[in-house]
Amino acid sequence: MFERLWKHDKVEPVADMFLYVGSAVLPLGLIAGLMRLWAANMSVPFAYGGDGLVSQAWVKGLIETGSTMTNSSLGAPGIAQFYDYPSSDGLNILVMRVIGLFGMSSGAAVNLFYLAGYSAVGVATALVMRRLHVSRLSSLGVAVLFALLPYHYMRGEMHLFLSMYWIIPLLLLVLVWLHSSAPPLVKPVTGGWFPFALRNRRSIAALVICAAAGACGVYYMFFGCFFIALVGLRVALRDRSPRVALAAAALVLVSGLVFSAQMIPSFMYSVRHGKNAMVAMRNPYEAELYGLRITQMLLPIDNHRVPYMASRRAAYRAASTNGFTEANMAALGILGSFGFLLSISALLLGWPRSSRRRECHPETDEPVSLRLIGLLTVSAVLFGTVSGFGAVFAGAISPQIRAYNRISVFIALFALATLGVLADRFIRLRTGAAWRVAGSLVVAIVVLFGVLDQTPANLDIGYTAAVYAADATFGQQVQAELPSGSSIFQLPYLPYPESPPMFGMPDYDPFRGYLHTSGLRWSYGAVKGRPDATWQQSTAALPAPAMVQQLREKGFAALWVQLNGYEDGGVEVQSELSSLLGPPSVVKADGVIAVWRL
User: Fold this and answer.
1) Strand partners, 495
2) Are residues 496 and 349 in the same domain?
3) Mean pLDDT, all residues of the chain
4) How many CA atoms lie within 13 A of 59 on its CB side?
5) Would you say residue 192 lies in a domain?
6) CB-CB neighbours of 25 under 10 Å
7) Are 153 and 235 contained in the same domain?
8) What are the two backbone dihedrals, phi and then psi, of residue 170, each rounded to the nearest 5 degrees?
């Protein structure tokens, strides 16, 4: 049995199938245990607040309307149109749309999608590691550790689509292919007018992977194209073959075309209505603020199981002016940090100096080069780090890509792949059944250690249940008070999207009403910089009598006032509206929100 776990070359579909099942089940089972899902209400989202509310509202709209671009339940008196803030996550949207066909709530749909990410990442990683001649046991270990990165649960449902990063191992496979003796798309001989070879499985697979990357979000597409261009250029110079550079350019072009195709509706909207200068406008400095920090990668995670390590992270965050940026999510853990340093040393020190190259089929598998992984790691750091080449790109070309810390998930894969390859090489140097058994036990213990190190002492998500239940109760009270189809104006006016907190009201908080009702129309969600949002802002600034008159003329049936959005806790606005309209029809149990009929 242990001999089979360490086999590399012989094709054993049944054994590999068990590997892929394990790669799907183990990460999911581990995260379910860490989150205590057996005690959770799966209809309650794991993240309920901030960007988590955006994910919920977006998924609710997709389930109810089938569209990601418009939502007639938001943006009253108009219809919310999100063309100014497009998404390039076409594949993720498709998966979420399929999940929505089963009639579950938006909270359950988001939870299911998020949990499926652990299995998807695990299977994709195990598949790629096997294609790179890593043994089954090491492939399983790398798959579990990569699926359970701190990056994964820290992104969570706040950054829902970033936590679905299964495309990254597949992009690594394309990079290894490009670096090999049989690069995809490259003709073995010159001749003919068409410059590419398409009649082999490697070329087709590479094209499909790059096309998929273009539909998995702008960051993974952008970083993937960077690495493809880098490896293509390196191989072209090494082999003095411009055909490899041309093949890399073609793969980048495919990914870019798929990405661009998803932007067409937004481009057409801008042509008709003009460009919106108030949405998603980035400053080049933000590439510095959200850049990668090596300290954040190597430090322990927040709330580490070992008190001393937890205190080290807490001390750094307390002392650092940038300790609370999302670069905090780039932590690699002890094993990842060790693999990170080893991968860099493989490039800088030029090791291993000699290795026997295993014979393999040129279209199905390829042993991985640790020097290549080292090159990718060093390049990722130089590109993503604060004041690195990414910041240069932001200043000289485009600041729209700003969160360069997100390249850390690529670095994590490179680090763990290095450990997997080295574990195999060490075990193969030993012979005999005893070494196989001992090696298997060591790998299992190391992976368990890594999982415990990469996950915090507490991942309990039960704290959201009470808040969610209170909002649901209040939402149903509001719905019972108003006829179906009623429009509700929300105060204070909070620009959408990306607005700083307004006193005690966090960004995206006004979505709470929409999430817990159906058949009502809400003012929040009108994109700032467009006429509906401008009208809302000017109306909200009017004296109470004039505002009420305007709202009645527009057909609004009620006012939803979040009192903690005012400097005085809403005392003045509550007094004005009560003297004008009488006491509120519905008040939330905690007194934060009050609703007046108009």
Assistant:
1) none
2) no
3) 89
4) 31
5) yes
6) 14
7) yes
8) -65, -35
